[in-house]
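sry for the spam today, last one i promise. struct tokens for design, 446 residues
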């Protein structure tokens, strides 16, 4: 080939390379909302693995959280600090927050961004037990020091404001998105996800595999779908849902034990309690609150057995209300049960117990309708003259009867005054005699 031919080939190849469309990069997206829990850890780990397996350029975590468990937060931060691909935490959408554990997670990302009208901060650890003793105070001091050291190390690793990070832990300071950029807590403010990808394009970051330059402009966003199992676990580990499951489980088992053989309340109650106990493994349970709720249930049961003129019932309702408030004693972490859940749940529980109580009292006052006691006071018709002994038809059955006082002619209406074995003692009843019509198949005693 001549030199002119080689030059022409090179020109054509260069033109083809220029004309060929560049392959768009792919960005994986994980949306996290709500309390940080062990389920959240599983979601983040799965998202990083899927993003890496699919060859994504980076992983974007859209975050909106009031906080969560310290051990779950540490696991997520450790995973982000050792991620093999760039991870961008975007506090969004507008109106979202990254509070408490969310501060650590946001600062642990390779790139931290926030949407307009969002905030970050208030990362001071909260005591689950709520104790005020000197030992508890010393323990909380150790926890706060440990958290402060951890957030300082994260901020230093990512080149963020170390002093503010420590203040967020020790003083619970919180700032807006504009202040966060000004103080170098986060990297930028982005109006939307496309705006975020356009602004971070070309930004260099350092991963465990070495330096990486982000190529995110016009990248294809591929959301990571959360499976049914993770969605279900995330729902039941919500404090409000776990609380309702526990109350439903206790009510179901109570009604099953009170009425053996109904089956359905026992099945529903057993399943609900098992799910509640699973959720409690992932939640900061205050056992004093749990015991108060159980004590309240015991008091309501005792009200059914003991006449206290409502004292036990009122005490049970108060104990359940206090226990519900104390069950998850970590308001700043988002674990306190909502009043919108507590009031209806306690109201329904107390109402059901009082309804059962009213039915029981009414049943005790009602005259017996079965057995020999149920025959007393009934009206019968004399089939064979009572002089003083004979037969009386009652509810289609023939009974031996003795008139008191005798005699009583056939067709006379009599009232049963006593039952002695298989013999009725009757007395004349007010009213007219009736025509005696022989009945076939009348069963009876005697």
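last one done:
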């Amino acid at each position: 080939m001549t030199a002119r031919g080689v030059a022409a080939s090179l020109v054509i190849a260069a033109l083809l390379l220029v004309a060929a469309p560049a392959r768009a990069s792919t960005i994986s997206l994980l949306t996290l909302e709500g309390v940080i829990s062990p389920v959240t850890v599983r979601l983040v780990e799965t998202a990083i693995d899927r993003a890496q397996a699919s060859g994504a350029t980076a992983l974007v975590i859209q975050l909106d959280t009031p906080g969560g468990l310290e051990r779950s937060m540490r696991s997520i931060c450790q995973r982000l600090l050792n991620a093999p691909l760039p991870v961008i935490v975007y506090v969004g959408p507008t109106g979202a927050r990254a509070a408490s554990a969310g501060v650590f997670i946001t600062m642990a990302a390779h790139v931290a961004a926030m949407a307009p009208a969002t905030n970050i901060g208030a990362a001071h650890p909260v005591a689950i037990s709520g104790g005020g003793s000197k030992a508890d105070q010393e323990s909380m001091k150790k926890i706060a020091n440990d958290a402060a050291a951890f957030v300082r190390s994260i901020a230093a690793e990512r080149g963020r404001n170390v002093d503010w990070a420590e203040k967020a832990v020790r003083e619970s300071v919180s700032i807006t998105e504009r202040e966060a950029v000004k103080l170098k807590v986060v990297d930028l403010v982005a109006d939307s996800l496309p705006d975020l990808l356009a602004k971070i394009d070309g930004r260099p970051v350092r991963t465990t595999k070495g330096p990486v330059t982000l190529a995110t402009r016009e990248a294809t966003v591929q959301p990571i779908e959360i499976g049914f199992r993770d969605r279900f676990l995330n729902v039941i580990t919500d404090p409000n849902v776990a609380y309702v499951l526990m109350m439903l489980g206790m009510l179901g088992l109570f009604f099953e034990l009170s009425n053996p053989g109904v089956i359905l309340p026992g099945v529903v109650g057993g399943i609900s309690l098992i799910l509640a106990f699973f959720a409690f493994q992932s939640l900061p349970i205050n056992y004093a609150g749990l015991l108060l709720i159980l004590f309240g249930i015991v008091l309501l049961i005792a009200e059914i057995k003991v006449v206290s003129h409502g004292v036990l019932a009122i005490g049970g309702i108060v104990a359940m209300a206090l226990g519900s408030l104390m069950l998850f004693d970590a308001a700043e972490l988002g674990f306190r049960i909502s009043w919108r859940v507590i009031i209806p749940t306690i109201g329904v529980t107390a109402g059901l117990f009082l309804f059962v109580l009213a039915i029981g009292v009414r049943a005790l006052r009602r005259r017996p309708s079965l057995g020999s006691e149920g025959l007393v006071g009934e009206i019968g018709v004399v089939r064979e003259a009572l002089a003083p002994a004979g037969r009386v038809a009652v509810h289609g059955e023939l009974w031996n009867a003795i008139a008191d006082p005798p005699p009583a002619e056939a067709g006379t209406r009599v009232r049963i005054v006593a039952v002695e074995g298989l013999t009725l003692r009757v007395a004349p009843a007010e009213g007219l005699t009736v025509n005696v019509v022989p009945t076939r198949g009348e069963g009876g005693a005697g």
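The domain at 371-437 is CATH 2.40.50.140 (OB fold (Dihydrolipoamide Acetyltransferase, E2P)). ok im logging off now
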